[in-house]
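Students often ask why inverse folding is considered easier than folding. One informal answer: many sequences map to the same fold, so there is more than one right answer. In these notes we will look at a single instance of the problem. The structure comes first.
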């Protein structure tokens, strides 16, 4: 049994290869610990400033081919890879490294410990799009009412 559906150029797979980069700020948790994990406290000003700078840098790098999801002091960047060209992988790696270096430079200038980055590849299974499922269910309900 094969994992493919379709023939020739119309071949579709049930999974896709992806590359992901995880970047987070070293020592950020200890900065928050000092203020009781309350980012609204006066003691958290440096931690909040650090996070805002991280966010500003990430906004400069994010675009259609370099999707970013920020979760506090960590950011996940990802991209679907291509079987037909290595330029997609090269582009992602170049962007991830450029982003990492800019964050590193900012962290160094501000006297912070810096970021770390992990890059990994893997297979992502295709799942139903929730919006499409909901839209289909609504359409079926309307048809049944009529």
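Output (designed amino acids):
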């Amino acid at each position: 049994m094969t994992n493919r559906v379709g023939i020739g150029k119309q071949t579709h797979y049930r999974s896709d290869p992806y590359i992901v980069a995880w970047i987070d700020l070293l020592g950020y948790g200890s900065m928050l610990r000092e203020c009781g994990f309350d980012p609204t406290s006066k003691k958290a000003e440096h931690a909040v400033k650090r996070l805002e700078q991280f966010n500003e840098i990430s906004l400069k790098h994010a675009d259609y081919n370099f999707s970013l999801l920020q979760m506090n002091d960590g950011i996940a960047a990802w991209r679907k890879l291509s079987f037909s060209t290595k330029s997609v992988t090269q582009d992602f790696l170049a962007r991830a490294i450029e982003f990492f270096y800019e964050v590193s430079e900012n962290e160094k200038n501000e006297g912070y410990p810096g970021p770390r980055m992990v890059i990994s590849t893997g297979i992502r299974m295709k799942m139903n799009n929730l919006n499409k499922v909901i839209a289909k269910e609504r359409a079926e309900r309307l048809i049944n009412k009529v």
